[in-house]
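G.,

No rush on this.
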Amino acid sequence: MIHPLKITSTLADETRYSIYEYILKEKKTVTVQNIADKFSIHPNVARLHLTKLSEINIITADFAKTGKGGRPGRVYKASEKGVSLTFPRRDEERLLKWTIQLVQELGPSALTKCQEISYQDGYQQMKNYVNAELKLNNMLTFEQKLQLLTDNAALIGYTPQIQQTETGKKVIFSIFNCPFQEQLDTHSDIVCTLHESYLKGQLNALFSNNEFIQIESMIHNCDLCKYEINVTEIDS
């Protein structure tokens, strides 16, 4: 097991973390030269960053033929499993596995109850953030609410994009490396349903007028999960 301090120190470098985010989004293999060109750094520096990331197992390294003859070149891609960081180590994945199996055994009523729980968890967590902000400011503007939503989405692995619409804003959340990847093959229906209800809870805590749509999903052979959220600036 990799020591947590090694993981945190590796990702503490801003350029290295940005390289990892880029590889996640690309969803394909990259070379040292790709990274050097993208980040305007020397290939030797790019190679060092990629080596550090592969040492903590969040990216993998392999060899591939270049098509130009000669020796195969080294290529890198994001690890499917990702990395778990806890102090001290906890076996939360096993607990999650037991919970999902229990929901599956108990049937639709159990799933419905879990949806209520995950929704309330997301709703209450966002309300806590809102209340903390209100202690500093008498009110929250539409833009401040939007910032809270995007900041919290980023914390759980989503990459947010904001677009202007005629009535308000469109927020697109994309996730390239699902935190529940290991459960998707056997329990995707349960995992995705609960994750989505959690997001809806956060959204409804901020905006009473909203529209929440999933437009891409990893379980439907897409490269990523993507949600489109429309929120109006006239909000109670």
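When you get to it, here's the other one too:
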Amino acid sequence: MPPRLNAFHIRALTTGSRKLPSSAYTDAHRNYDVALQTTPSDLTDLERETLDSALRVDQAGEIAANYIYKGQMAILGRDKRVGPLIQDMWEQEKKHLTVMDKLQVQHSIRPTVLSEVAKIAGFGLGAATALMGEEAAMACTEAVETVIGEHYDDQIKDLNSFSSKHPSLPILKDVIQEFRDDELEHLDIAVDNFSQRAPAHALLSSVVGGGCKIAIELCKKF
């Protein structure tokens, strides 16, 4: 059995009772917290544009991620080894999307018009790579999470440059850092589960990663 197969359980044990930043958005006791309900009014035009495009891409990315795992589960869900692993990663992506939907409303972000495309493309990518085999499915995860990890890193740098002291920005940065760490954990799990043994791994990674980068740029604008 690969060493990271139970990574999610290990993480739960090591974090103990510590609340993750995103839990604030699922805590009913914080429904009236200004840090979770309001958006900065003192951003420069460039900062507002940066925030809008970042959260629009993040929401679209989480939609696509959910459908990638949905597609993989449709093919590999009954596999006793990788089925539970894919399901665990999917559950994290469901949580990510729930939080991103709330952030979209909080910061009055226009959702991308490509949401339906993200669903169809995500499911198709997940199912197609799963049909190629377990290793190809993991290679898909590796490629996607590599791009998303880099994208979240860029967003953290942008948020660090904002001049506003609005209380929503520190928690937003913490949430993005949390989600970045989740995505990089998915990447590590994919590698530990032999993603790099997939047929034509380099080509598959290039195609999937390149597609993700194009999708990011399109969602920024549309």
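The first helix runs from residue 7 to 15. The chain has one domain: 44-221.

Enjoy the weekend,
O.
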